[in-house]
Amino acid sequence: MADTNDIQAFVQPYQIAEASPELNRSLDCMARSFAVTDDKIREIINEFHRSMKAGLAADDPSELLMIPTFVNRRPTGTETGKFLALDLGGTNLRVCQVTLNGDTTYNLVQQKFTITQEAKSARLWDFVAECVGVFLEEHDLHPPPGRRTIPCGYTFSFPIFQTGIASGNLSMWNKGFTVPNSVGRDVVNLTQSAFQRHHVPVEITAIVNDTVGTLMTSGYSHPDTQLGIIFGTGTNAAYWENLDKVGKWSGDRKGEMVINLEWGGFDNATSVLPYTMHDNKLNRKSSNHGLQVYEKMISGLFLGEVVRNALLYLVDQRLLFNGRSSTALNKSYMFDTAYMSEIVADDSPDLSSVQTVLESTLDIPPTTLIDRKVVKNVCNMIGTRGVRLSAAAMSAVLLARPELLENTISVGIDGSMYQFYPNFEKDLYKVSRKFLSEDFVDNRLRLHLAKDGSGVGAAIVAMTVDQERNAKQS
Predict the structure, then answer these.
(1) Are 16 and 351 in contact (CB under 8 A)?
(2) What is the per-residue pLDDT across 262-303, written as a single tens digit (0 to 9) for each?
(3) Euclidean distance between CA atoms 456 and 107, whole angstroms
(4) N or C terminus of the chain: which is more exposed, having fewer CB within 10 Å?
(5) Longest dimension (CA), the chain
């Protein structure tokens, strides 16, 4: 791509020589709406910093939430021991036994349970207890000598207002969850009550957000980690902040604490984000309408749906598929973000992978090469916007601690977008060079995959809590 501060850099690549003038005009208009120029990123970074400061000063739902996590000890990589962890995400529940080896490495025994639709809408807490019970039985795990319960770290990947290291009230559901009688209540109590109902001998000693878990896991392997990010089904980040900058913190102001940004809710008012009619259609029909707007523009759960909306807009103008659609394409969320990855990666002359997705998977009538080029272009427009917005947020948080940028900084990242979307990591580096400086990005910035990081991180935090308890008792 040429000059990324010129709108033409986001328009010209998507023109199709053999297409009709009407189709190219529509692609031109669409590409402009999804464009994120360098100046737009600078505007987003400035708004990020303003909202971060406001959120650190006081609780305000219209700003970044900037939630203190009560996690204030950086891992060193020398800690040892075996610990249990739960990781409740948007798609799966993982139950893990983590062994910390004391040399920045760890071993993981885990079982993954797909969260059923019934659990997402009704009986989540009992589902969690049942899965943990299965894991303990299958791996013959029991409380340690002299204890009645197994201590456990709990990664909870939904927005909570934390009131202690092992307590936090659910502020809202996202990622398609709608479990009733949960918002405003302590999720540790709700889970612990289910453990008691199902006779599961586990005590949750620490609750962390998935991004905090990712940050701590990366910090165990790379002690210079400053930021943990999830780019997956949803998106969020957590970072180390000086407590003297956290005006709303009423405790000791010495040292650092991990702050959970809840950045999926950045700019819900869409004052700076490049918000399109296709985003608005998704937002209007979502269960959390008007919330998590930034997340809906960059995360795996939603990107495919934005593409679907944009494709149907072209179908309705009879500019794509000769005006025909299919039952699958007409159904919300049937255009999976995994299809985007497959389509964007297809460089064959006849775009055969694109053809397979459209005709075999989505049952669209036979497509022309122009149809397939249009679909690839739309996926590229929306994917490019997603990675540029992702880089904007990462850059904003790193720039919030400018005193650290003289040193090497690691960023731990987990999630399907980071792992599987074509060139996502490479483009994060490439885009952020403009805003973090080429010298820093090329020589001192290290992005690391914190694979399964959210679960391991919960175990690391549980370990620090256990160490503090034991120290007090002795």
Answers:
(1) no
(2) 999 999 999 999 999 999 999 999 888 888 999 999 999 999
(3) 9
(4) C
(5) 79
Q: CA-to-CA distance for 76 and 55, rounded, in angstroms? A: 29
Catalytic residues: 94, 157, 210
Residue-level length of the chain = 474
Cα(369)–Cα(349) distance, integer angstroms:
9
Residue found under tokens 């210079």: 224
CA-to-CA dists, residue 299 to 33, 260, 325, 382, angstroms: 18, 18, 25, 11
pTM: 0.90
Range list of H helices, 144-299: 187-197, 210-221, 277-285, 293-298
Q: How far is residue 260's CA from residue 210's CA, in Å, rounded to a whole number?
A: 10
HSE toward the beta carbon, residue 313, CA cutoff 13 A: 21
- Residue 374's SS3 state is helix
**Strand 160-164 to 167-170 pairing:** antiparallel
How many Å separate Cα 469 from the centre of its chain?
Answer: 32
Q: What six digits make up the tokens of 356?
A: 């397979």
